[in-house]
Amino acid sequence: MATVIVVTSGKGGVGKTTTSASFATGLAQRGYRTVVIDFDVGLRNLDLIMGCERRVVYDFVNVINNEANLNQSLIRDKRVENLYILPASQTRDKEALTKEGVERVLGELKQGFDYIVCDSPAGIERGALMALYFADEALVVTNPEVSSVRDSDRILGILASRSRRAEQGENPVKEHLVLARYAPERADRGDMLSVDDVLEILGIPLLGVIPESSTVLQSSNAGVPVILEDSSEAGIAYNDLVDRFLGKTLPHRFTSVQKKGFLKRLFGGG
Amino acid sequence: MLLRPTHLASQETPPFELKGSLFTLTVLHLFQMERTAVERHLAEKVKQAPGFFNNTPVVIDLEGMADSPDGLDFNGLYELLRVHGMAPVGIRNGTPIQQAAARLAGLPALPETRASSAKKPDKTESVVSLSRIVSHPVRSGQQIYAPDGDLIVLGAVSAGAEVIADGHIHIYGALRGRALAGARGDAETRIFCQSLEAELISIAGRYRISEQVDAADRGKAVQIYLMEDRRLVIEHLIR
């Protein structure tokens, strides 16, 4: 049976789509049949990050409205086997996402995939609610600043009360924290919240810390999921994150200044 | 116009008024209607306690007579009880036919009360059932209200969350949001928390916002209550 994972945050611009793209790519690289769905109807971005924007014919809303079938809409990734993208519609809005429609599409996808990754839009309105409603697990993406943490707290509350699992009294959605854009030296200076600060406020298990890195911006613009840049710090961090999700126990990297200082001295920054 | 009361009627003291009241009455549980048996047993009872049966009002309970097929002779029963110093005031339970017969004899049917047996479990539950226990953390944007009772939160209350109770509030985690105890004005209520980092605390409408909390109290395990002069006090808990 396929597992549905929502990548969500509440706040915008914290790294949901970057995380969705790298997480889905990582799962597919490890041999799992994976599809990543863009729920940000009207503000389609995932196709850009995945570098498949020129191959979009039909989209998620077409499938919901029975205007196309799944085979016509799924885009197969050219770099990684087992990876498919279901893009959002750019010309519609979130009202096109009906609960029945989303349920039907997810039901069909469950037949052929191991993991279904739902890239949530920002906010707590219809698009975000539909992205998280059917989730079995959730990656909550947070930046180390108070407004982002508070919005993540809000999303955690919604996961615990308004998801299908909550409404039907099943086991709760399994929550994972992804702390993105982390800069240990700024946390030490007190400019940013530290890993411990965030964990204390949110109180959910930490899946990974993604360091602030210029590689993320570069690879986004190039349409390459940053996990494929496996010599970059962000790429290493995402690879660790996927391994941890699949059950490996790995120490967290890039969380303290000393290590970075040492690397810096060796390689002269970057 | 027709409905307007006349001045005379509204100014006169009314000749009576109706009010509900509760009485303790003796209940006679009737199991059989055979006149001689009832009479013999009555005589025995009266002999045991002659003073007791001195115009004592009684209610006749017919629950044990539910299987009795024929109509009951309520007139006969009424007289029998009167003779032995009892004043029947009504009946309880019984079939509709029995109730109709009783009404003809001047004995109204009193409302059924599932007395002692049903009440007992209620009593043990009621104390706890008014409190509300929340075993998950209260997240930003969530609001939890415990009407008529206490609110017990096992986790933290996040910034932007609100917990409200008519009674006390206990938080076995950090309080970072708002907590309002005594929401309906009970000044005896208190707030307890493991770490005070609240945005707002309020007891019976007396509140303090984060800014007004002393730095020495922040992050401490405290209880919050009102003094006699309704001053809000934050007191550290000894651990």
What does this molecule look like?
The complex is a heterodimer of chains A (270) and B (239). With 270 residues, chain A is an alpha/beta fold. Chain A has 13 helices and eight strands. In chain A, helix 1 (16-29) crosses helix 12 (233-245). The longest helix of chain A is centred in the middle third of the chain and has 17 residues, at 146-162. The model of chain A has no long low-confidence stretch (mean pLDDT 94). By secondary structure, chain B is an alpha/beta fold. Chain B has two domains: 26-112, Alpha-Beta Plaits (2-Layer Sandwich), CATH 3.30.70.260; 129-236, Pectate Lyase C-like. A six-stranded mixed sheet of chain B has the order 5-7-9-11-14-15, with no helix packed on it. The chains are: A alpha/beta (270), B alpha/beta (239). The A-B interface holds A 124, 150-151, 153-154, 156-158, 160-161, 200-201, 203 and B 136-142, 155-156, 158-161, 174, 176.
Portion in helices of chain B: 10-25%
Mean pLDDT of chain B: 83
Question: At the first level of CATH, what is the class of the largest domain in chain B?
Answer: Mainly Beta
Order of helices and strands of chain A: EHEHHHEEHEHEHHEHHEHHH
In quaternary terms, these chains amount to heterodimer
- How many beta-strand runs of chain A? 8
Question: In one word, what is the shape of chain B?
Answer: elongated
Largest sheet of chain B: 6 strands, mixed
Quick structural summary:
The complex is a heterodimer of chains A (270) and B (239). With 270 residues, chain A is of the alpha/beta class.
Q: Descriptors for this entry?
A:
heterodimer, A: 270 residues, alpha/beta, 8-stranded mixed sheet, B: 239 residues, Alpha-Beta Plaits, 2 domains, 5 helices
Give the SSE layout.
The complex is a heterodimer of chains A (270) and B (239).
Chain A: E1 3-8, H1 16-29, E2 34-38, H2 46-49, H3 60-64, H4 70-73, E3 75-76, E4 83-86, H5 99-112, E5 115-119, H6 126-133, E6 137-142, H7 146-162, H8 164-167, E7 174-182, H9 184-189, H10 195-202, E8 206-211, H11 214-222, H12 233-245, H13 257-267
Parallel strand pairs in A: 1-5, 1-6, 2-4, 2-5, 6-7, 7-8
Antiparallel strand pairs in A: 3-4
Helix pairs in contact in A: 1-12
Chain B: H1 7-11, E1 26-29, H2 35-48, E2 56-61, H3 74-83, E3 86-92, H4 96-104, E4 109-110, H5 116-129, E5 132-134, E6 143-146, E7 151-153, E8 162-165, E9 169-175, E10 178-181, E11 191-196, E12 200-203, E13 206-209, E14 222-226, E15 232-236
Parallel strand pairs in B: 1-2, 2-3, 3-4, 5-7, 6-8, 7-9, 8-10, 9-11, 10-12
Antiparallel strand pairs in B: 11-14, 12-13, 14-15
